[in-house]
Amino acid sequence: MSNCPEIFLYEGEQEKDIEKLTLEELSAIHPVWKTDCEKFAPWKSDSHGVWYAKAQEGAPVIVSAQCNSSLDLVKSFAEQGRLPEWGAVLAVSQRSGRGQLRRHWVSPVGNIYAAWYLPRFAPEWDAVLPLVLGVLCAETFKEYGIPVQVKWPNDLLVYGKKIGGILIEERGEKVYAGIGINLVSAPEDAEIRESWSPKALSLQKYDGVPGPLSVWLQLVNRAECWYKSTFCSPEVRNFLEYASQNMAYMEQEVLVHDSNGEYRATVLGLAEDGGLILLRSGKRHVLYTGSISPA
């Protein structure tokens, strides 16, 4: 794999449980993928039968047939030196996709199941990295007229319903992000684990939302620009003030769900170490683990 902005269809030669993906198969798997295949034409096939296309900008992207997890696959590629920083895997579907607390992530064809090999940010950014990526997604979808908000710590909402989520994992010195977005379908209400969790929503009803590859490359381009201009510095506070504008439930009363049970509090803002500042019974405290829902 090269450092140039190219899109590869994974040949699956090392993982026995992943089939080789051809251009014809990808085009037929879902209309959104067909649209992307046509958009990034012409495609070429090399001497090993690997299909690839050029992208105008962004880092290399490997499109995989159904796999266990795009995060596991991107880790394998990165550790083998086959994928550079900013490179990503987009799986058409997953058998064992995972979200926060390793909960199963339902993965039907047509949505975004991306795994990203990230560069190291300045150390001050480590704790707020899920929020950084959440705001990045929100800003990207706002260009399509979709009012995405970030729900602390790592969910993406539209009008209070979940359209995606973010998971950060580290292995040694390498940092990876899993990003799932419901482009064309979403879990049924009965599939939602906790009664207080937000219901799911897909973006299918919004006109003009492109396919998985198109969305992903736009997101990567925005991330690289932000990285060069902002995330190499230790100035986290200014970003958090900006991020607050994209946060759900800001200055609202919420139900907090953590190891102490369930209680009411008001969201005041974001702490520089990634915590959520709350006001409870007249006292301020910072939430680091748990979740929130509308009161």
TrEMBL record:
Any GO molecular function: biotin--[biotin carboxyl-carrier protein] ligase activity
Tagged with keyword Lipid metabolism: no
KW Manganese (keyword) present: no
Entry keyword set: Ligase
The organism's place on the tree of life at top rank: Bacteria
Any single Pfam family the record assigns to this protein: BPL_LplA_LipB
Annotated Gene Ontology cellular component terms: cytoplasm
Protein name, per record: BirA family transcriptional regulator, biotin operon repressor / biotin-[acetyl-CoA-carboxylase] ligase
Location of the BPL/LPL catalytic domain: 56-231
Signal peptide segment: none
InterPro entries: aa-tRNA-synth_II/BPL/LPL, Biotin_CoA_COase_ligase, BPL_LPL_catalytic
